[in-house]
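We close this part of the discussion by returning to an individual protein. Part of our work consisted of pairing the sequence of a single chain with a tokenised description of its backbone. What the numbers capture is local backbone geometry rather than side-chain detail. The amino acid sequence and the backbone structure tokens for this protein are reproduced below.
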Amino acid sequence: MAPLTSAKTRPIRLADIAKAAGVSHGTASNVFARPEIVREEVRERVKAAAEAMGYGGPDPKGRLLRAGKVNAIGVATAEPLSYFFDDPFARVMMASISQACDATGAGISLVSAANSEQLAWNIQSALVDGFIVFCVDGGSKLVELARDRKLPFVALDLDSDDDEAVAAIGVDNIAGAGLAARHLIELGHRRFAVLALPVADSGFGPTTREQMEKALYSGTRDRLRGYFAELSRVDIDVERVPIYETVNDEESVWAGLDHIFAGAETPTAILAMSDRMALHALD
């Protein structure tokens, strides 16, 4: 059988396949979308015509546009893509998100980027019905980008005090930090040091309580407040508790430990503001 061709001035369309196979456009469409309702002989004839003409099937983007729904959720972060796999918090959250998507048959699209320009493009071009936004860093920018898509979104751990219009799910950082400090106090510890999340975007190093109160991120401020409120309750002088700002990675955590344990009064307990930080400290 000679290969079936169509004009090379345009892509092969489903209508070309239907004509070549001698069936209606609707029947050809069903062969690709709902093959179970088409007789086997007709299916094979349409598939043979499509193969001969190099046609792989209807463009899925066209179907999505017609349906107005992708059946996928975008999970977005300003962190590199590896964050979803390396960070303990992210892994636990992704496991729960995956379970919810499995229950409804929805897919997941991971959206991240190494810089703001790439992130903007990735969010604008993502084929999703809505977003779950990981606001671990650059939360305000992520919210702005998600809003621009005019799709529904939910922010996780939104680090902002001034946008009550955003649907956000967070934690009580003050209460949670207080519970962590109380646990160590009840174990008998009285000498503490703090490994802190970023205060600003200027690197890592020793910092002070006053500088922490001016932190760009409310989560950093509130966790220190929770620690110190609990330590003060048992008459620990929080002004003598060393604080080291990290960038939540191995290098800055180890630098913080070197600094803390080089002091005259070494701590018996470390209050780490993230599980990733704590795991680096344990190593």
